[in-house]
From TrEMBL:
Protein name per UniProt: NRPS A domain protein
Xref: Pfam families: AMP-binding (PF00501)
Classification via InterPro entries: AMP-dep_synth/lig_dom
GO cellular component terms, semicolon-separated: cytosol
Length: 219
């Protein structure tokens, strides 16, 4: 709950397949906070209009979507003005977000971030090796209007994110590098895949700065 105000009054959806790690966040997010979880039928999940009606009927407050799925939901919402949604948060993950495509949503929802009833849109980068999220950034109308490129924000509390060069040294701001993820929320490796684990999970040269010994980072 570092950034969110989830509680027992929230209504979540289980929209995604159990095989997609986004479902872990959906399932346990609701259960951890004592909220209600609405299991979305498969056919409804493939019909943006039907899903929009379900969101309104069930008074869903926490929605988790890949950007491509949300763009379709936006189109359905535009075709059905006046949908009485109760959303408080929309969390994106699973693929790169194009903030400029959200501009129309902000225009049509309670004057954007200034409206008391407008949901907070959040972009969260994640990888299977951390199941689920790595980073967080709250979006706003200005970012969408400016056509900003996708950004992943800051690391969540139990993870660290480094951008390093080929010598595993930090690169200056604005310089291209490779992203590495470390911290307590990182997996230990791949079950039964020792060679792949050794290739992708490498020693963290900065672990001592955080009081750790022998920890690894994912590349």
């Amino acid at each position: 709950d570092h950034w969110f105000g989830f509680d027992e009054s929230d209504v979540w959806t289980l929209f995604h397949s159990y095989a997609f790690d986004f479902s872990v966040w959906e399932l346990w997010g609701a259960l951890l906070h004592g909220g209600r979880l609405v299991v979305v039928p498969h056919l409804v999940s493939r019909d943006p209009g039907a899903f929009l009606r379900m969101l309104a009927d069930e008074r869903v407050t926490v929605l988790n979507q890949t950007p491509s799925a949300f763009y379709q939901l936006m189109a359905a919402d535009k075709e059905n003005p006046g949908s009485d949604l109760a959303l408080r948060y929309v969390v994106f993950g699973g693929e790169a977000l194009e903030p400029a495509r959200l501009a129309d949503w902000y225009e049509r929802t309670a004057a954007g971030e200034e409206g008391a009833d407008a949901p907070t849109l959040v972009n969260m980068y994640g990888i299977t090796e951390t199941t689920v999220h790595v980073s967080y950034i709250a979006l706003d109308r200005a970012k969408a209007a400016a056509g900003a490129s996708s950004t992943i924000g800051v690391n969540i509390p139990d993870l660290r994110v480094y951008v390093l060069d080929e010598h595993l040294q930090p690169v200056p701001p604005g310089v291209t590098g490779e992203m590495y993820v470390a911290g307590e929320g990182l997996a230990h490796g791949y079950l039964g895949r020792h060679a792949l684990t050794a290739e992708r999970f490498v020693a963290d040269p900065f672990a001592h700065l955080f009081g750790e010994r022998g920890s690894r980072m994912y590349r």
